[in-house]
């Protein structure tokens, strides 16, 4: 009896100890190697073809990893990590995966050298806290009363690795204007920049430089009928979430009629119910009606007669944004508490005007001068779908970065400057500790250098030499008080030299760097803690039942 208690029979494979760690690290390295070459201003793009043959060409770490269907549980952690970074910061998805994988690799070597994972984890945690503190105290530059120049530089830095880097001056201006135009102050008096208010519309044709910023929220659908007016001003907007069609009986409701003449009355009543609904809408003063569902031809007639614009099949997401911008309420049903059907005029949103314009080959409805928050649309032009999709991803990253810069007001130098400074600082810190964590912190310091190394390798430059020079500069900056300005020295990947990146305008929001280090460390720790993996075999006997 005692034997079976010691070694329970597991219906599955069990791997434990070093095997699991090695396997996890290998899996994470594999994921990191996929995105490694797409880091930096000279990174290369990836072409992903999914199971139905759709092609995606992208440079965005999160997109690449989302498209790969990763099976390995530890590698999945990295994919989720990239998505988290994409949600929280918006950019830096590639870096975060590379740093996490490198930290794991180093930790694995330490475990092989008989250092307990717990010591490594506490060392990593300490290093992470110290790094974040050091960035905030020594490396950040406050951008007081942000002028446009630092913002444009942040946007350009974020775009530099993407497809549109050639036109980065042009797009950076677009992005900064877009973000500044959605500025709003919330109830607590904080200034926020809701990026969701920026609608990105993609239209084929012309070149990327013909993209422009439109004031107003653009809906990618035309009017529901030709007889409707092209513009309505001032607009009262009703947002509905149900069908304006002939009211049909619910499924399973049967009507038994004795007299066939009653049928006509039933039909008539069905038509009249919709008519009454529409009249309620129009009586409330609505002259623009947006619905996520359909509108019947018969129902359209009433709108045309009233001179109102009706738009059907609007995307749910667009609807929410329009409702938010115009102060409307999404109405899902007319029924009120008494069981009657009413429509409250308070649910209407207001805008200066609603017009239909032609952009490229599509009709779009523009909602201009919205009441509560200002909404803008970026109209992207480009040669083909792949290019437009990639432009949209690049702009999304830049929009997020500009928003973060505006909200946090602090920037750091890009191009491997922060990572090298932290590496030099942490190495020094490690030598002052007499505890077990010393080795872990030294390895953490080394791992951060992966970013400048990969940047240099992708640019076809001599990585070893450049990183050595870079570290020498940062060492000087941290020892000599009069050489403080060296702390923003980073790589210039076009010429393969070292330069002061703050002056060269290669900057990123400090928050992005801090988050990269925090998320990467957390992910590495999560995977490092695993020392046993049990894969259960599917039980066949249950399937037969």
Automatic annotation (TrEMBL):
It holds the Pfam family Cpn60_TCP1. It comes from the Eukaryota. It is found in: Cytoplasm. Keywords: ATP-binding, Chaperone, Cytoplasm, Nucleotide-binding. Transmembrane segments: none annotated. Belongs to the TCP-1 chaperonin family. Molecular chaperone; assists the folding of proteins upon ATP hydrolysis. Known to play a role, in vitro, in the folding of actin and tubulin. NCBIfam families: chap_CCT_alpha (TIGR02340), thermosome_alpha (NF041082), thermosome_beta (NF041083). This is T-complex protein 1 subunit alpha. The gene is LOC104765882.
């Amino acid at each position: 009896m005692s034997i079976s208690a010691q070694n329970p029979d597991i219906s599955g494979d069990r791997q434990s100890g070093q095997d699991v760690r090695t396997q996890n690290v290998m899996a994470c390295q594999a994921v990191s190697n996929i995105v490694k070459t797409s880091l930096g201003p000279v990174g290369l793009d990836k072409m992903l073809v999914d199971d139905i043959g759709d092609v995606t060409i992208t440079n965005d770490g999160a997109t690449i990893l989302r498209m790969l269907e990763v099976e390995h549980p530890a590698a999945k952690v990295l994919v989720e990590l990239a998505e988290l970074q994409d949600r929280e910061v918006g950019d830096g998805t590639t870096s975060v995966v590379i740093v996490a994988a490198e930290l794991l690799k180093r930790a694995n070597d330490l475990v092989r050298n008989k250092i307990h994972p717990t010591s490594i984890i506490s060392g990593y945690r300490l290093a992470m806290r110290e790094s974040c503190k050091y960035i905030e105290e020594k490396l950040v530059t406050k951008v007081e009363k942000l002028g446009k120049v630092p913002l444009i530089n942040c946007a350009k830095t974020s775009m530099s690795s993407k497809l549109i880097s050639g036109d980065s001056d042009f797009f950076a201006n677009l992005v900064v204007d877009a973000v500044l135009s959605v500025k709003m102050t919330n109830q607590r008096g904080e200034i926020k920049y809701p990026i969701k208010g920026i609608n990105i519309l993609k239209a084929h044709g012309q070149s990327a430089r013909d993209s422009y910023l439109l004031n107003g929220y653009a809906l990618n659908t035309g009017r529901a009928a030709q007889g409707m007016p092209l513009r309505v001003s001032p607009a009262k907007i009703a947002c509905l979430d149900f069908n304006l069609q002939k009211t049909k009986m619910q499924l399973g409701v049967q009507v038994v009629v004795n007299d066939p003449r009653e049928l006509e009355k039933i039909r008539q009543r069905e038509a009249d119910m919709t008519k009454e609904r529409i009249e309620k809408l129009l009586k409330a003063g609505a002259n623009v009606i947006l619905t996520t569902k359909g509108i019947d031809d018969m129902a359209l007639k009433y709108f045309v007669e009233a001179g109102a614009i009706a738009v059907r099949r609007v995307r749910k997401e667009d609807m929410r944004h329009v409702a938010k911008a115009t102060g409307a309420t999404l109405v899902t049903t007319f029924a009120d508490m008494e069981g009657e059907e009413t429509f409250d005029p308070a649910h209407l949103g207001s805008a200066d005007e609603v017009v239909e314009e032609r952009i490229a080959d599509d009709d779009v409805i523009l909602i201009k001068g919205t009441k509560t928050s200002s909404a803008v649309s970026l109209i992207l032009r480009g040669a083909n779908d792949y290019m437009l999709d990639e432009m949209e991803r690049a702009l999304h990253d830049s929009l997020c970065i500009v928003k973060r810069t505006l909200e946090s007001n602090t920037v750091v130098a890009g191009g491997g400057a922060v990572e090298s400074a932290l590496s030099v600082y942490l190495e020094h810190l490690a030598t002052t500790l007499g505890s077990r964590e010393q080795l872990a912190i030294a390895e953490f310091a080394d791992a951060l250098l992966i970013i400048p190394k990969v940047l240099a390798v992708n640019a076809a430059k001599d990585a070893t030499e450049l990183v050595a020079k870079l570290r020498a500069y940062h060492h000087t900056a941290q020892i000599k008080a009069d050489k403080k300005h060296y702390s923003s020295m980073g790589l210039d990947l076009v010429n393969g030299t070292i330069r002061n990146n703050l002056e060269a305008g290669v900057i990123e929001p400090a928050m992005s760097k801090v988050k990269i280090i925090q998320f990467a460390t957390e992910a590495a720790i999560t995977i490092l803690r695993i020392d046993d993996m049990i894969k259960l075999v599917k039980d066949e006997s249950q399937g037969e039942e």
